[in-house]
């Protein structure tokens, strides 16, 4: 097991990464306020991993309540969130009860938002079970649900007290989901860690084959990058925005196609190609750089072309996104491989051209 | 105009109290991030005060969007909250847009919670128009909506950037609402300010007659008390809980009768009598102290007896309330007039007896 620390003063918390962690109740126990937890999971993950976690906790004397949500991004809504509140209230969970989110990013985002709102805030633990959740969504305290008019529009910054990333859970993850997680892993290399990018170029097939050592290294290094960014800029006033590389384009794809058509990581990959293409047009990246990014995504079995929604539709959807300030599109672009920056000056026509060039 | 400061470090904010403040756009302008506001009001307050506020802001060059909610505690729900999100999204409000809540505590609580959640947090200004909101709910950053199983169960701690208490708006407030606000004013005297309590005993009829000078003094002193408590204990780990005098009993009345039957302040008055009665039974207050409290509430035209729901039902409803820790009822009681403390040791039978003694 490896342990990282997210340095947020009196809200600092550990990230444990390793094998067999679900059965190690003492790691959870150490972070509880009272021996009482409410586990939020879903109908796919629950049957696989709830039993083991629950048994370990109950054996350690913890009182456990559970709610299982329907599976899917389409259910990341207020109605589903309310099922968590219903459970918390009917089971008489207290403000000191700890909510535990066991699942992928959808369960983590909803569980975290529920914890942020229940009685104005209850303690919260993340047990991410997808690669994407282990390297990205479980770390950093962003929580949210979707609104029909925009993804992740309603949410809170709310930090967990612990992240427990058990690599063994990745054994049952569908290949497509593993690939989607790799999109975020590659992102860290692109925005701030060119050594990691080189390691990924050397190791991608080991990751695809779920070599535990390679996964361990990639997850640890991704979390370290994310933890550093979050500690420096918790509420995304500055540097944290760089984590959104490919995301403004990607959200347009997700919303344009309807939530759940493409996976988040898939949309991020295609969106990152658009950001890279725009960076090339601004003279920041060489054509060869763009090719290197594309090659890595292709090896990860990720899409490198966006769906043909039309540039106008992309721009309209992007204007609805959060990364808008004073009516201008603020985009994360690449100054070099391993170095990102926020850019608010690109002409809409230039952005449109980059989008068109990366749709097929 | 008088100005107080809520000392919360980099989230400190001013409370302006005075006459004619709605027309003074410069006070609002000074606290905006961008010249763009989204006003949340309701169908009663909007027709009275929205026009003046809106005209002043637009004249000062501010872009104004508006949503008007149905009036009443019964609408303090997710569905109504969602109408705010719908407006913010269809009007393309940005994360830097400031949400302005113009109305009583219901509008303020919902507007504040919407601001806390929209894109994970947008700036927020309170313009309270009831006495209760001016002395209590607009200050301190508690926001919430109700859940069918409990009042204010879903919410956030989220501080405004400004509170603008325009005393002129109280002119149109129904007598019953004024009285409800007085319950919270009297509360400050009871829990931590015996000089203020004496002033209230001398001045209650002037307040009932809406003498502006008396109102100004009472609001300013109430806000000062609240601001001090909030600055010392923002998220209610300790002292802030004292502000809940009468509230655990009161919430049981509100929920037991169905939201909207009794006003919040009315429930708090009757609930405070129960807390006082229990304090007397514990030997902390003299019978004469309880009589003094009762006399003040009676002069304020507030109920001093709870509805006959039966002690068992009260206790069941109170156990659903937030002020429960490890299965024990934690209650705010009075050690003396002007001094409150949290007590978690009272026997349920003793609590039940105090409730019965104060129901009629
Ligand atoms: N909060 C953040 O900072 C942040 C960052 C990135 C993404 N997100 C959000 O995360 C979500 C995407 O997360 P995700 O990719 O984990 O999707 P997901 O939660 O939908 O999980 C993907 C699928 O895998 C299943 N699954 C999960 N763990 C499994 C396992 N161990 N074995 C087998 N199946 C398993 C899930 O039930 C689901 O069907 C999006 O809603 C996105 O907005 C949030
Ligand atoms: N956030 C907190 O710290 C806090 C503290 C106390 C109470 N509260 C909440 O506040 C709410 C009660 O607030 P309230 O008492 O202001 O109730 P309210 O908001 O329902 O207002 C009372 C009535 O007066 C009307 N009204 C408002 N201003 C008026 C004016 N100037 N002239 C004429 N009519 C006017 C309203 O439309 C409403 O009908 C409850 O939901 C309670 O939970 C919150
Ligand atoms: Zn992402
Ligand atoms: Zn109150």
TrEMBL record, chains A, B:
Binding-site positions, Zn(2+): 184, 247, 264
Localization, UniProt: Cytoplasm
First-level EC class: lyase
Reactions catalysed: 7-phospho-2-dehydro-3-deoxy-D-arabino-heptonate = 3-dehydroquinate + phosphate
Domain 3-dehydroquinate synthase C-terminal, residue spans: 181-324
EC number: 4.2.3.4
Signal sequence range: none
Predominant location category: cytoplasm
GO BP annotations, alphabetical order: amino acid biosynthetic process; aromatic amino acid family biosynthetic process; chorismate biosynthetic process
Pfam hit, one: DHQ_synthase
Keywords: Amino-acid biosynthesis, Aromatic amino acid biosynthesis, Cobalt, Cytoplasm, Lyase, Metal-binding, NAD, Nucleotide-binding, Zinc
Gene Ontology CC: one annotated term: cytoplasm
Cofactor: Co(2+); Zn(2+); NAD(+)
Annotated ranges, domain 3-dehydroquinate synthase N-terminal: 67-179
Taxonomy, superkingdom: Bacteria
Cofactor: how bound: Binds 1 divalent metal cation per subunit. Can use either Co(2+) or Zn(2+).
Sample GO molecular function, one term: nucleotide binding
Pathway assigned in UniProt: Metabolic intermediate biosynthesis; chorismate biosynthesis; chorismate from D-erythrose 4-phosphate and phosphoenolpyruvate: step 2/7
UniProt binding sites for NAD(+): 71-76, 105-109, 129-130, 142, 151, 169-172
Function statement: Catalyzes the conversion of 3-deoxy-D-arabino-heptulosonate 7-phosphate (DAHP) to dehydroquinate (DHQ).
Family: Belongs to the sugar phosphate cyclases superfamily. Dehydroquinate synthase family.
Matches recorded under HAMAP family: DHQ_synthase
Protein's name according to its UniProt entry: 3-dehydroquinate synthase
Organism of origin: Thauera aromatica K172
């Amino acid at each position: 097991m490896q342990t990282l620390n997210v340095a947020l003063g009196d809200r600092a918390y550990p990230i444990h990464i390793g094998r067999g962690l679900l059965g190690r109740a003492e790691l959870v126990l150490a972070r509880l306020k009272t021996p009482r937890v409410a586990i939020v999971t879903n109908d796919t993950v629950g049957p696989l991993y709830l039993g083991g976690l629950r048994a370990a906790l109950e054996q350690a004397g913890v009182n456990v309540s559970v709610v299982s949500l329907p599976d899917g991004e389409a259910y990341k809504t207020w109605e589903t969130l309310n099922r968590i509140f219903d459970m918390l209230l009917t089971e008489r969970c207290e403000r000191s009860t700890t909510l535990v989110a066991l699942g992928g990013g959808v369960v983590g985002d909803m569980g975290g938002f529920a914890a942020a709102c229940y009685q104005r805030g209850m303690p919260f633990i993340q047990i991410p079970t997808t690669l994407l959740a282990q390297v990205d969504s479980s770390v950093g305290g962003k929580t949210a649900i979707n609104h029909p008019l925009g993804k992740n529009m309603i949410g809170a910054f709310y930090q967990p007290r612990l992240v427990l990333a058990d690599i063994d859970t990745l054994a049952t993850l569908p290949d497509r989901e593993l690939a989607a997680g790799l999109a975020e892993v590659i992102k860290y290399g692109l925005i701030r860690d060119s050594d990691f990018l080189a390691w990924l170029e050397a190791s991608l097939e080991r990751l695809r084959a779920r070599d535990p050592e390679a996964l361990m290294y990639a997850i640890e290094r991704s979390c370290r990058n994310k933890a550093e960014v979050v500690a420096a800029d918790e509420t995304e006033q500055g540097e944290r925005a760089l984590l959104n590389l490919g995301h403004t384009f990607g959200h347009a794809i997700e919303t344009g196609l309807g939530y759940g058509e493409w996976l988040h990581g898939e949309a991020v990959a295609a969106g990152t190609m658009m950001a890279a293409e725009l960076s090339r047009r601004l003279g920041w990246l060489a054509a060869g750089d763009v090719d290197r990014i594309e090659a890595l995504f292709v090896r990860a079995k990720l899409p490198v072309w966006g769906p043909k929604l039309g540039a106008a539709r992309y721009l309209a959807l992007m204007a609805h996104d959060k990364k808008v300030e004073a009516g201008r599109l603020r985009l994360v672009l690449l100054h070099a491989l391993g170095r990102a920056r926020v850019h608010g000056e690109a002409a809409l026509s230039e952005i449109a051209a980059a989008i068109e060039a990366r749709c097929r």
